[in-house]
Amino acid sequence: MGQAEWARELARTILEEPLPRRWAHSQGVAAKAESLAPILGEEADLLIASAWLHDIGYAPDLIDTGFHPLDGARYLRDVIKADDRLCRLVAHHTCAVNEARNRDLFDALTSEFDQERPELVEALTYCDMTTSPDGVPLDVTERLAEIHSRYGPEHLVSRSITASTPCILAAVGAVETALRARQNYTGR
Ligand SMILES: [Fe+2]
């Protein structure tokens, strides 16, 4: 069994009952990750696993600092003893360093978790930021607008998303370019 199936069942256990909307979102993000298999090769399994687990830090039982990438990654590292690469992807998903800075958790995040390979980091950001909170595919600009309207202009999350927008758009652009190049190469 690959990591992806294991990750799906772990995420289901953690999210499905307490946070059904996050669970729906995670299913959509994982489906997006599966669609990137042609450009990721053997690393697709790792990306899909990280997609299932990227938001587990929102689960009430896992909340510690209140910064979900760090809480989720620490849980995976300390309790689950998960693969280092998987922990790193969850810790840094969707340009998390910017929100970490705003929460005074930048040093904690970056000293505990290194960055993963940029292509994988970008791929997870793409999957998260082109999937709605309900798990439906949507354009990155709609996704950014949705976050701003959900949290409101003064919220720390909105300010962090503003700081992360260049990083998010660059990641989405890089993945779309890789997908187009792949389509041109295969003729599909
Ligand atoms: Fe997240």
Automatic annotation (TrEMBL):
Pfam families: HD. Residues 22-106 form the HD domain. CDD domains: HDc. InterPro entries: HD/PDEase_dom, HD_domain. This is HD domain-containing protein. It comes from Planomonospora corallina.
